[in-house]
Amino acid sequence: MGRTVAIVFILGCVTNLMGCASARYVSKQGDSGVVAIPSNTNSPPFRYRQEAEELMRKHVGPDFEIVDEREVVTGSRVMNNQETQTQMTPNKKQPNMPGERISTNGMVTSTNTTEYQITYRKRGATGGGASTIQPAGGTVPARSPQP
Prior knowledge:
Layout lengths: L1 H19 L3 E5 L3 E6 L10 H13 L3 E26 L9 E24 L5 H4 L16
Antiparallel strand pairs: 1-2, 2-4, 3-4
């Protein structure tokens, strides 16, 4: 019974943590911007893509285009798991007192934390807003001069 309660509690906590994440602005310029979402999904209950598109529409109107989209590393998560075991052993110096052998094994793992970033602009935007847009996590590609 206690184990079942613990599992349900842990699953509930994980679900709540994942449900708190949503679309957010990374940057906003006049007619362009970058929106970030935890992952590129639109499956219930995590409609992140839909939330991102709502933010884009709210910023530049319904007529927008996506310039770039990619997964971007935002940090890292380090987990340190240790297991300690205590074994009773004979005590050679004092036979009437028990001895102990303590051994600890550990494993450290590191994983990248990421988010999905979508760079957008108002369709047909000209001037400063469209030409100064920088793709999420990258640099602006060089353009060849136009005649």
